[in-house]
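Supplementary notes for students who missed Thursday's class. We covered one full example, reproduced here. Read the sequence, then the structure, then the short commentary at the end.
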Amino acid sequence: MKSITKLICIFLLIPLSAFAQYCMQGRVTDENGIGINEAQIYLYLNGELEVLALTDMNGEYRTGKVPQGKYQVVVSCMGFTSRDDSVAIDQDVTLDFILETRSIMLDSVVVMGRNSRPTSKGHVFYLSKKVKESGNPFVALQEIPLLYSDPVSESVRSSDGQSMMILIDGMRVNSGISPIDPSRIKSVEIIDVVGAKYMRQGVKRIMNIKLKETSLYTYIQQSVRADYPEKSYFASPKFEIGNSRISLYGDAFFSTGHGSKTNTYNLETPELTKKYSGESKSKIKDYDFSLMAKWRISARDYFAAYVQGNASKETSRNMSSGELNEHSITRNNTSDYHSNLFSATSYYKHIFSDNEEMELYAVYSDNHANNTSRLEESLNGMGDVNTLKYDNDRKLTTWTLDYSKDFDNGGSLNIGNEMQYSYDRIENIGIGSYLFKHHRLNEYVFAGYNGMLTPKLTYDVTAGMEYVSMKSDSIHHHYFRPRLSFGMYCNITNSISTKVSYTYSNTPPSVAMLNPYNTSADTLLVSHGNPYLMPSKTHAFGWNASYFSGGLALGTSISYGISRDIIEPVHLAEDNGVLLTTYKNIGRFRSLQLKYNMSWSIKGFFLLMDIAHNVNYYTTVGAKKHFTGILLLSRRWGKFEMRTNFSYQNYINTEFSQTKNYNPESNLTLSYSFTPDILLSIGCTSFIGNPRSRTTVSTGTYKSFTYTTKKTFTPWILFRWSMRKNDKKKIELENDIIRDHEDKIKL
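Structure (token representation):
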């Protein structure tokens, strides 16, 4: 009988234990052991806020009863740095916290929703348990309403279209998200108050992914894609292996691409009329590799060395026929382009303290390209051949020093210097040989400060001075140009923020714009640069506002720019009917943009819309308007996802030309994830039709029309396999921290 009674008691206690609840209590103090009044203690369970508690005048708190489980704890109070930790609650727990003093860091934190909180510079998001277990970091980042993350292309962008830089644990990266196991993501911070060191890159927003420590990290990925009927493909293997002291990362990329388009050209001048039409075909082969060694010298010192190489070959051919002043004409235009690029980078970071650090970069690149353009024209059976051959060499060296410090009043200082020297050698080895040499030295010194006027109102000021010395053959230019930036950022409420900004910048001409020699093989077109060009100067004013709640994010912005000495292509008609294309500083230029964006994510459905109205005011021809729009839709059903996107710009304007686009570019993708590490996708580019356009050039008595159809309707298939494995601690210096190598050079 006693045994039966014991069994009955056990069965009665089982459901009680399943719903067991416990409390967490403790004390929050400063560095001197003094209790902090009204500190906020947040407990998140599986990404959901479970409970919020406040400390009393002695700094003591008690949460009350909470379900058994593993919680993420965030402790914050105005004037102190925040603390976050994880705790397993399976009994009553006592947990004390010590917060470091800061005059102002955050307002009294009010929970904005399920998994985010505001900061003085943006917002911090905590991912839910569900997406952390997805196995794919790009799937996990889809939960953040201010981002657009695409697992197929493995890309992340700001949902409002602003240029965004990605950091991992505060380290600068470009595309180092792929190797991350999403279960390691501690938080994702979106920073809208950008520091001085990112001013020259035009960065408007920063995403900083903070990671938990983990064991030895082994990462392998293989991606392959094939397009048909274009017969294009690419293959891209990646790997990383290492421990807490040293690791090695590498990747390679092999691709072959084919393209074709049809074009119709009409030229009208008082002296001649020229009409022809035909088809162009192109082929591209590209080989790219990179290798990075990372070394954690000590707890405060990091070092990385990176090398990258690229070899590319492009060929194109255009066959066309038509009339020249009522005489038959045939044209055969071929182009061959070869390039080789090698770059080496070293990076060093020293952390003086939790609020003070220094970074050093050194970059060297060797870039070589040659281009052969051959145009054969036959008029009434009589042929003529023009050939241009170019060799282009560039040597580039960059040194960068950056120092930053955070202060107890919530402000931060950033000072630095960047010096860059480049040498370009452009040689024409065809008919009319010449040699063009260009030397350029840039020295840029900058300083910036971010501060707080109130807990909700932040400002940033950046000033820099750039010295440029250029020598284009025998023509010398030396000048100083300032750069200025000022911004005010305000968290009006927990879900509404706004920012106003002003920037003064200058843009120097590229080497191709300075090259004074003809780069066209067409007898009726002369194209060359202008070695007397000076930098353009721009004043930019901006305002934007954003709102988000749950999976909905809305944004609007207005930007207005005034530029002087703007560099624009100009077209001059000569008496013999030849069109001369070059560049000039053409005086004053103004631009206005009104923009609206929206993203909405709910129950596997995602919508992104970005539309803008643009007006450009030219000195000689007045205002020209154009519209841009992006629409993206995706729907996920378990392991299956469908995604489609459209992008359209009705006009592309310059002062003397206009391109009208008749239909949008489009893409359709269907993907299935067999496991978090195995993805199969099929899709089609230009699935609603090939893009068509008309370009008009008009200056004086010269007028030309070009109708183009890009044959980009292409079905494709993609397969990607990834492996992420942990055994020991991984070095916390993420991939692509210094992958800012230059692009291939082209005239």
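Commentary. The first helix runs from residue 2 to 18. The longest strand covers residues 327-353. If anything here is unclear, bring it to office hours.
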